[in-house]
Amino acid sequence: MRKNMLPYHVVELRGLACILLVAYHVVGIPGSGMQVAEGSIYRYATDSFELIRMPLFTFISGLVYALNPARSDRLKTFFIKKLRRLGFPFLVVSAIFYFLQTHAPGANGSFVPESMWRIYVYPYAHFWYLQALFLIFSVVALLDALHAMDRPGGFVLAMAAAVAACLTVHVESNVFSINEACFLLPHFLFGVGVTRFRAMVLRQTMQAAAGAALAAGVALHQASLWGYLPHFGWNSSVALLCGMGGAVTLLHAMPSSRVFRTVGASSYAIYLHHALFAAGTRVVLHHMDAPDGVIFWGALLSGLIGPMVLEMLAQVRPWTRVALVGKA
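User: That's the sequence. What structure does it adopt?
Assistant: Structure tokens below.
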């Protein structure tokens, strides 16, 4: 597998990112999820990883993409594969999720668009990430097709433009999650750079710089969580410090682990389907008046294991593989 060409435990790191993501959706935002109090340890813990979760997912995508980047002579094939991987599940799974949400209001939060077409044009539930990631792949693929980032100088210019967009772009309508694409593009490019130019930077230097960035970012973010500083969003320099510093630190620190590797191997299926399984389990446990700890762990495990089982069942037919998990 191409992932093995990287001297890191990338699949395990994907598993960690999945666990953080599912835990966040189990706890939810105020008014949804477990509906725990604002000062709950569950909310505090998930909020503490707010600036690391999705940047980490995106960094890993860039890290792996750079092993087999788009080129001008196979650009069409690249986009066909991305449409199959991202587009078909986006159309099918988001429609299933919308149908279930409209027939069981409140199970996964309160926001449900009145018109179904809006789920394909604007951010909806966790499917916004598929929209944003496709935009990111499109931009980076075109840059690579033009050989604009083959050398460090071109890459630095692209990264500088991405950081500027992250800090400044805000489209009011947010069509196709363009704002989130701008927020996360620097993290994807950073992953590309770590793969493409890692031989140019000493491992110790990279780890030291990442650790310092993470420490500074976490200190500022924690100060904001405790009310000493205003809230920092994804389009902030603090988010860039936490996201990039955290990604490289975890990349080098992540050990080999069968559990994390198993979760990471099904990361895409988990991302697509975790909300259905986690929410169903959470609702049942809520009705049983289960304590918060039981609800959290029950919903977390359901959100991880359920999609793995679904992924295995989807293998029986070619069309289910494509529609449900984006596999050929």
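Residues 2-325 form one domain.
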